[in-house]
Design brief:
Order of helices and strands: EEEEEHHEEHEEEEEE
Number of domains: 1
Largest sheet: 11 strands, antiparallel
CATH topology: Lipovitellin-phosvitin complex, beta-sheet shell regions
CATH class: Mainly Beta
Distance between the termini: 19 Å
Length: 276
């Protein structure tokens, strides 16, 4: 995949410690840049637990649905490329489990997984749905890097389009806002690590939809929080956790009287298991 300078998926690799003070908490600052060494290989384990529950409406009596996805993948850095750095992601093994899913039911789709692009444009609508889902799971851990040096307490924000907007044919893009804050900078010998706190919030404004000829209004609330730890000497993300709940409230439909609320809870963890 081609990763621009702002891509923070694998790590903020080239850091310059300076004596600058000010910003959030003062003290040393680091300049974050995506610049992994060519030929480096990083092995990761990702686990994501998803659950969905209808809290009211016509499907309120349905039991909670849950799915657990585990992915083991390798990221190989090829080197500089047009517009950024060429990186290939290969899925070494994948598994999906759900109480309502028979053993091996998803294996035919999982067997076809191999490579994604940085923008994940390679997982077009013609690709298996599970391919697109895996790409989106990885992209959800990608955030832009700040332009200048940052220290403990400094923060920056970014906006990301939710895939949900395309799925429900929203009249306007549905954007999430993410705030990243430097929590800690640690120097241990030749290694420097940066710990980031991540807070993602969903838009609260009403969103107009047209579903099966009916005009409905959808509102999203809630958010995700977590942390990411980067080892700058390795030029790699060491671990990450994200979790929280998004509530989707829909009003309208037949006669404008229908209302439904569902809660979607997600817990994601990523860990570097080896590198060379």
């Amino acid at each position: 995949m081609t990763a621009a300078r702002s891509l923070a998926f694998t790590a903020a690799a080239l850091a310059a410690l300076s004596g600058c003070r000010g910003g959030g908490g003062g003290g040393p600052k680091v300049t974050l840049r995506f610049h992994p060494p060519a030929g480096a290989a990083y092995h990761y384990a990702l686990e994501q637990q998803n659950s969905m529950k209808f809290e009211n409406g016509p499907m309120g009596a349905m039991p909670e649905q849950s799915v657990t996805m585990r992915m083991y993948f390798t990221q190989l850095v090829a080197g500089p490329a047009q517009g950024g750095t060429a990186v290939t992601v290969t899925f070494d093994s994948t598994a999906v489990e759900s109480p309502g899913m028979g053993a091996g039911m998803m294996q035919p789709a999982l067997d076809r997984m191999h490579v994604l692009s940085a923008a994940f444009t390679g997982v077009a609508s013609s690709a298996p749905p599970m391919t697109a889902l895996m790409g989106k799971n990885l992209k959800a851990l990608t955030f832009p890097l700040p332009e200048g040096p940052v220290g403990v307490g400094d923060s920056w924000t970014s906006e990301t389009d939710l895939p949900l907007g395309e799925q429900v044919s929203a009249s306007t893009p549905i954007k999430t806002k993410t705030k990243l804050t430097v929590k800690d900078i640690q120097v241990a010998g030749a290694d420097t690590s940066v710990l980031l706190v991540i807070e993602t919030t969903f838009p609260g404004a009403p969103i107009k939809l047209s579903q099966q000829g009916q005009q409905v209004t959808m509102k999203l609330s809630g958010g995700l929080t977590g942390e990411q730890l980067y080892s700058l000497s390795r030029s790699a993300q060491m671990r990450a956790t994200m979790g929280g709940t998004m509530r989707i409230n829909v009003k309208g439909g037949q006669g404008g009287q229908g209302e439904m609320t569902m809660a979607m809870t997600q817990q994601t963890s990523l860990k570097l298991t080896g590198d060379k």
